[in-house]
Amino acid sequence: MLQTPRLYAKLVGYIIVTLFNELRRYTNATLVRQQARLLGSSSATARDRNIVVIGASFAGEHDARLVSASLPPRSPYRVVVIEPNSHFQFTWVLPRFCVVKGHEDKAFIPYGGLVSKVPEGAVRWVKDRVGEVREASVSLEGSGEHIPYEMLVVATGSGVQGGLPSRVNETDKLEGMKRLQAMQAGIEKADTVVVVGGGAAGVEVATDAKALYPDKTIVMVHSRSALMHRFGKGLQDAALKAMERLGVETILEERVVDEDAGAGTVTLRSGRKISCDFFINCTGQKPLSDLLSHLSPSAISPTGHIRIKPTLQIGDDNFPNIYACGDVADTKTPNPNARSAMRQAAVVADNIVRVATGKEPCYTYNNMWADGFIKLTLGLDRSVSHIGDGRSELLFPGKETKEELMVGMCWWHMGQKAYEDPYMDGKDGVKAD
Ligand SMILES: Cc1cc2nc3c(=O)[nH]c(=O)nc-3n(C[C@H](O)[C@H](O)[C@H](O)COP(=O)(O)OP(=O)(O)OC[C@H]3O[C@@H](n4cnc5c(N)ncnc54)[C@H](O)[C@@H]3O)c2cc1C
Predict the structure, then answer these.
(1) What is the 3-state secondary structure (H, E, C) of 285-301?
(2) Which protein residue has the closest C-alpha to ligand 1 atom 3?
(3) d(CA 141, CA 46)
(4) Which superfamily is assigned to 3-91+108-161+286-370 in CATH?
(5) Which of 115, 134, 262, 304 is deepest in the core (most CB within 10 A)?
(6) Residue 247 C-alpha to ligand 1 middle, in angstroms?
């Protein structure tokens, strides 16, 4: 009975700590800006010591933003961000945009917001993929350039071979939009859609598809005894209830062992065959840690994550100047998400700024249960928000009025006006209305 007030009290504590840290960073960045205005800042050529950030999604972009805003104006350091994607790819809305038409362009947000807000020369943006990490430099796959670093942040996240609905697996916005449109068309054409994996992406795509096309047969196959099995019982029940309400057939404790696109069937581990016109795989995300596997094999955990110290330096004493954060880092976060990735990025940024000003890294990352907050859509017009600490949970059912969900908020966060993107000029063939 006391569980709910206890959870609310803990939540208030979490909010206070988070606000305090945000305020500390904001104050520091404001001071730096004032100093730069009064005393000037290092020219681009004087900034010849690189802090290289690999990957510019939730973790890497946030880290680069905080470091470049907090470095003293006369710092000899600059941040070099290396990211192959033409745009920030907003994962949260991918399941929705795989089903619903007309919003695809909104999932790809221009990156310019970061560079425009920091002193000239404090950030170099490189659109390329890192192919190799060496002791003091990284090499780029596209241009072949070797970029030296004094500090390195690995924020390469996780990937999935099958792509959508979890990842786009295209670097270019236009190509990414085409992939979303292809999936929308596949679902629209199919009589029976089989979705594998009852985590958040699977539940969202299955409930959206059934809500939009009530006459289609949508089948969910999940290997565990409950949907959303990493979360509390309340959320598991809410997900199952939504499936039942909409009429999604849910098969638990089963695996797909074969998919025969020609015959239009999938075979389950039990031998049962299900007809399938369109197959959606929502499983198989893996941390992208390969880049470090040659330089520091001991830093790679059996799960493929990068081992880290509490300071988020990698777990290899030979490389105190290499940090990891986000989905790729072995932080033991129960449900890794954008919030935990950004909190880790902030810890890395705090430590890097200390080192860049002649101090030792001292900030540490601790899992915070409230990072695991999730808002799960359950069809086109409703959702449930969930927060829990493993002992008890709070559930907040909600109505969803916007088909494109909260994507506009992310454009604002990225320093962009929703949904203005000069990249799309002249590309109206695939642009959403
Ligand atoms: C479908 C879906 C929905 C989600 N919904 C939510 C949600 O509602 N709320 C929430 O908080 N979280 C959500 N998440 C989780 C969240 O997206 C991840 O936790 C978050 O993206 C992790 O951020 P990251 O920066 O660590 O890694 P990623 O987002 O995986 O980004 C890694 C970046 O590194 C780049 N990269 C990779 N390799 C290289 C290389 N060799 N060289 C250069 N760059 C490279 C990639 O291009 C990418 O931009 C969702 C995830 C998915 C898949």
Answers:
(1) CEECCHHHCCCCHHHEC
(2) 92
(3) 27
(4) FAD/NAD(P)-binding domain (3.50.50.60)
(5) 115
(6) 31
Q: Over the stretch 7-16, which tens digit does the pLDDT of each residue have?
A: 888 889 889 9
What's the average model confidence in pLDDT over 396-401? 96
Contact 139, 294 (CB under 8 A): no
> What spacing in Å lies between the alpha carbon of 268 and ligand 1's midpoint?
30
The reply to whether domains 3-91+108-161+286-370 and 173-284+373-416 share a CATH topology is yes
| Position in ligand 1 atom list of the atom nearest CA 56 | 49
Rg (CA), the chain: 23
Q: Are 90 and 410 in contact (CB under 8 A)?
A: yes
* Alpha carbons 145 and 193: distance in angstroms, whole number: 45
pTM of this prediction exceeds 0.90: yes
Calculate how far, in angstroms, residue 41's C-alpha sits from the geometric centre of ligand 1.
33
**Ligand 1 pocket: which residues have CB below 6 Å?**
54-60, 82-85, 91-92, 94-95, 129-130, 155-158, 165-166, 200-201, 288, 291, 326-327, 336-339, 341
Q: Which CATH number fits domain 173-284+373-416: 3.30.565.10, 3.40.50.1010, 3.50.50.60, 3.40.50.1580?
A: 3.50.50.60
Per-residue b or e along 168-179, where b marks 16 or more CB atoms closer than 10 Å to that residue's CB: bebbebbebbeb
The tens digit of pLDDT for each residue in 303-351 reads 999 999 999 999 999 999 999 999 999 999 989 999 999 999 999 999 9
Answer for the pair 183, 161: CB distance below 8 angstroms, yes or no.
no
Which atom of ligand 1 is closest in space to residue 88's alpha carbon? 49
Mean pLDDT of 262-273: 96
Instruction: Give me the residue spans of the domains in the chain.
Output: 3-91+108-161+286-370, 173-284+373-416
How far, in Å, CA of 69 to CA of 255, rounded? 48
Closest ligand 1 atom, residue 159 Cα: 30
In which band, very low, low, confident or very high, does the pLDDT at 4 lie, cut at 50, 70 and 90? confident
Length in residues, the chain: 433
CA of 341 to the centre of ligand 1 (A): 9
